Amino acid sequence: MTTLLAIGTQKGLFLATSDDDRRTWQVGPAHFSGTAIYTVGVDTSGPRPRLLAAVDNSHFGPSIAVSDDLGETWEEPDSAPVAFPDGAGASVERIWQIVPGAEPGVIYAGSQPSALFRSTDGGRSFELVRGLWDHPHRPEWGAGFGGQAVHTILPHPTDPASLLVAMSTGGVYRSSDGGESWAPANKGIKAYFMPDPWPEFGQCVHRVARDAADPTRLYAQNHHGVYRSSDGGDSWQSIAETLPSDFGFPMVAHPSRPGVIWNFPLTADSKRHPTELRCRVFRSTDAGDKWEEQSSGLPGGPYYPVVLRDAMCTDDAGTAGVYFGTRAGEVFASGDEGESWTTVVAHLPDVLSVRAVSI
Predict the structure, then answer these.
(1) DSSP letter, residue 121
(2) Direct distance between the N- and C-terminal alpha carbons of the chain, in angstroms, rounded to an integer
(3) Where does residue 58 rank: exposed (0-12), middle (13-18), buried (19+ CB within 10 A)?
(4) Residue 52 has what pLDDT?
(5) Contact, 261 vs 252, CB < 8 A?
(6) What helix, strand, coil percent values describe the chain, rounded to 5?
(7) What is the side-by-side order of every strand in the sheet holding 115-119?
């Protein structure tokens, strides 16, 4: 088995491969050199994985490039495939997330400003999901420190009509009718920075992951707060008690084992560095009731680099590989579910996203 790791950075996309052991890696040269790659989607519904890279060119703006040969060649459209229609009163500033839907050929993209787009041709063209864009709450959605964006998209694995998104700052929203209508799903998630700390919407959710074995179980990393929902988002409960901090950005779920999740805690708002200045991943095997440190093979302290929300992932192997990249340009891999770590590459530009797939 070969594992492909797509590493999006501030100055290009790097593709790394490992044969069998997921400990030794070959890293290729930069694709789209000089442009920011904020996210990469991988569509495995076809005969070979399709890579979709969100290319953020400072001159031409954001676009999506597609590769059906694992990055050997790329198809770049003449005009941006993710764009607001005339009369929407907005323009796409950045593409934050690209995710395949439950049906072949369906791809979702989340943008800044907060909007959702849907493709039915494998990511070559997109249409605005009007139900979310026209939601009456939208004028009150704020901008997080990184901007106002839909950064999490979770299609239901078996129900194409069921979809969840999360945004900064607006919170979690769900649709059960294919995106025609949306309802907030934030009960129990605290917004400590608001006059009413328990609002219907307005939470600064950093990331949401879905349990692979139980689609109704969700996990969220909030701006202060780590939560679990056991009812598809109807309600949320804190699972931060045994973590060293409730602040951070990524939240990752095992591809097949129920209740197994990973997190990278940071200190509070103004400092934003790893807790105790140590590079440490934390894993829970019981849906967040207890967390354990996983740092074997990771750098010692003092350690300052941050892991961003899209810069941590798993692959799709039975014994999951876990991967994360830092703003110092380092990427680390574990082929044994976090028990031990090796360095994939160092000295890259800021790592914005990582995505792994078996090929």
Answers:
(1) S
(2) 7
(3) exposed
(4) 98
(5) yes
(6) 5, 40, 55
(7) 94-100, 107-112, 115-119, 127-128
pLDDT tens-place string over residues 298-343: 999 899 999 999 999 999 999 999 999 999 999 999 999 999 999 9
- The alpha helices in 26-169, defined as continuous H runs, are 130-133
What CATH fold (topology level) applies to the domain 2-358?
Methylamine Dehydrogenase; Chain H (2.130.10)
Looking at this protein, which amino acid is placed at residue 91? Answer: S
Residue 117 structure tokens: 């787009």
Q: Could you give the C-alpha distances from 309 to 97, 167, 246, 301, 325, in angstroms and in order?
A: 11, 12, 14, 22, 10
Q: Which two tokens stand for residue 271?
A: 């400092």
**C-alpha–C-alpha distance, residues 75 and 86, integer Å:** 25
- In sequence order, what DSSP letters do the residues of 188-201 get, joined into one string? T---TTSSSSS-SS
- C-alpha 100/C-alpha 123 separation (Å) is 9
> How high is the pLDDT of residue 341?
98
Q: What is the DSSP letter of 49?
A: P
Strands 237-238 and 226-229: antiparallel
pLDDT tens sequence across 66-81: 999 999 999 999 899 9
157 preceded by a cis bond (ω within 30 of 0) = no
The C-alpha R_g of the chain, in whole angstroms, comes to 19
Q: Which residues contact 51 (CB under 8 A, 6 or more apart)?
A: 6, 40, 41, 42, 66, 67, 70, 71
Distance from C-alpha of 161 to C-alpha of 139, rounded to nearest angstrom: 25
Digit-coded pLDDT (tens) for 151-204: 999 999 999 999 999 998 899 999 999 999 999 999 999 998 889 999 999 999
The values of phi and psi at residue 131, to 5°, are -60, -40
Does the model's pTM come out above 0.85? Answer: yes
Token pair, residue 177, equals 């009718």
* Distance, CA of 48 to CA of 289 (rounded, Å): 38
Can you name the residues that pair with 247 across neighbouring β-strands?
A: 266
Closest CA to 32 of 355, 358, 349, 357: 349
